[in-house]
């Protein structure tokens, strides 16, 4: 099973809350692409670090970054702050890819193994729960060999604002087909 394949349909947890499965309709995918493009157009941090978009969709994204010499700490391994920045960026993009302005409430990251200069890191992020005001996102950072580098768990707050206006969504609002 691939990393992003775990949540396929709406389910109910023990508390009776609907778990997020994600709308993968054509309209929702197009809105997600527009949301991510809009966020990326003003993302100076990602530009500066060479973070690239590998794939995306409603409530999910894969970003990548190559570990440069300037990212190394005193031990000649990638400073955890750069790994966190990659994971946090993926968290933000996935949380807002359903046309909602979402901001982080908290994050927890576990570093599993070090990354070295020249490694290509991939941050696979998916929303695992999307409520009306809050959501949960899981980000798994792996290297070019598929080895896990870190895992970030984040909770976000939905500000109740659309990221895109009606002209930018094609009239489809928050991911509904137009």
From TrEMBL:
Question: Which UniProt keyword terms apply here?
Answer: Hydrolase, Plasmid
- Gene Ontology MF term list: acyl-CoA hydrolase activity
- Is Secreted there in the keyword field? no
Q: CDD domains this protein is in?
A: PaaI_thioesterase
| Domain Thioesterase, first and last residues per copy | 77-149
Q: Does the keyword Hydrolase apply?
A: yes
Domain of life of the organism encoding this protein: Bacteria
Q: What is this protein called?
A: Phenylacetic acid degradation protein PaaD
The species this protein was found in = Paraburkholderia aromaticivorans
């Amino acid at each position: 099973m691939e990393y992003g394949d775990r949540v396929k349909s709406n389910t109910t947890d023990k508390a009776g809350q609907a778990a997020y499965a994600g709308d993968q309709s054509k309209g929702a995918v197009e809105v997600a692409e527009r949301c991510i493009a809009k966020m990326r157009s003003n993302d100076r941090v990602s530009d500066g670090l060479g973070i690239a978009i590998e794939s995306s969709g409603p409530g999910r994204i894969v970003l990548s970054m190559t570990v440069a010499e300037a990212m190394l700490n005193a031990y000649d391994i990638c400073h955890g702050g750069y790994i966190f920045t990659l994971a946090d960026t993926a968290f933000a993009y996935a949380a807002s890819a359903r046309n909602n302005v979402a901001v982080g409430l908290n994050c927890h990251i576990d570093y599993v193994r070090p990354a070295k200069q020249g490694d290509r890191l991939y941050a696979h992020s998916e929303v695992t729960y999307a409520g009306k005001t809050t959501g949960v996102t899981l980000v798994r950072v792996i290297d070019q060999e598929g080895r896990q580098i870190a895992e970030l768990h984040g909770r976000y707050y939905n500000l109740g604002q659309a990221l895109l206006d009606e002209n930018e969504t094609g009239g489809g609002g928050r991911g509904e087909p137009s």
